[in-house]
Amino acid sequence: MRRSVRVTAIAAACAIAGGALYGTGVATAGDNGKVTEAKHSSEPYNIGKLVTEIDTYYGTTKDANGVYQASPDSAYAKDTASVLDEAKKDIKPLAAKGLKKGEKPAIILDVDDTLLLSLDYEKKTNYTYNSTTWAAYVDQADRPAVPGMTGLVDYANSKGVEVFLLSGLAEAQRGSAVKNLTADGYDLNLATDHVFLKNKAAPPAYLSNCATATSWTCTTVQYKAGTRAYVESLGYDIIGNFGDQYSDLEGGYADETYKIPNPTYFVS
Q1: Helices (H) and strands (E) in the chain, counts
Q2: What is the pLDDT of residues 155-199, one digit of tens each?
Q3: Where are the domains of the chain?
């Protein structure tokens, strides 16, 4: 199946304007008392300035409960809306195409930062992932919905498109994820046959090329592409695959792919 990636420009988070570098290197004192600096032509972009740009991109503000939220008027919200607007234009004709071939149309949605926004966690941990703090955060089940995504789900439902979720969350986090999605108003089938999570203790047979009960070597792409292949083997045509990471989208088994903006972390 063909695969095209719809990439939203995130200039506020990624660009180094004009190739400018902030600072020139490590300062050392010479014998004559002058300060010399080692020159680094490939010095990374200044992280302090990058964090400021990310805040501007999201329009980051704290709500009354002390939770960091993205502004509905932010560049992030507008970029996300542009991706979803294009997806909605595609869904109806793609769904009709699948039906003509006798296949049931479906879309696949990632969860973290595709359906549930994790900006509050990123801000409060200074953009540093830790498995323990992340698990505790997920268990709170209070992440806000990514702007526009409840509307996308409603639109897909209205066109007779089956909606599946495919996440890197662990099987042990299923209850928290379902609770959070329900609280945010997502009209979804949240049964186990529609919400696929990582089950390293008892991986499904369709991932046998990279996972067994005693060994999990699946990359993100292998796990997600393998699961999409399984969904299509059930008679579905995945007309759209949505994720905030390129690894959510690679590996095929989707007619179209849609990249949701996320400048806060990268999953290979």
Answers
A1: 9, 12
A2: 999 999 999 999 999 999 999 999 999 999 999 999 999 999 999
A3: 77-259
Collapsing DSSP states into helix, strand and coil, what is residue 244? coil
CA torsion, ordered 251, 253, 258, 260, to nearest 10 deg = -60
C-alpha dihedral sign at 214, 138, 177, 163: negative
How far, in Å, CA of 163 to CA of 254, rounded?
13
d(CA 14, CA 45): 9
Query: What is the C-alpha to C-alpha distance for residues 9 and 259, in angstroms, rounded to an integer?
Result: 10
- Rounded distance between C-alpha atoms, residue 137 and residue 252, angstroms: 31
Q: Evaluate whether 250 touches 219 at the Cβ level (below 8 Å).
A: no
Query: For residues 123 and 65, what is the distance between their CA atoms, to the nearest angstrom?
Result: 15
Domain 77-259: give its CATH code.
3.40.50.1000
For Cα atoms 10, 11, 15, give the angle at the middle one, nearest 5 degrees. 125
Across 75-101, average pLDDT: 91
Nearest CA to 240 out of 113, 153, 118 is that of 153
For the chain, give the percent of residues with pLDDT over 90: 80
Q: Which two tokens stand for residue 246?
A: 């390129």
Burial letters for 120-159: b for 16+ Cβ neighbours within 10 Å, e otherwise?
bbbbeeeeeeeeeebeebbeebbbbbbbbbbebbebbeee
The first and second tokens of residue 241, run together, are 């695959």
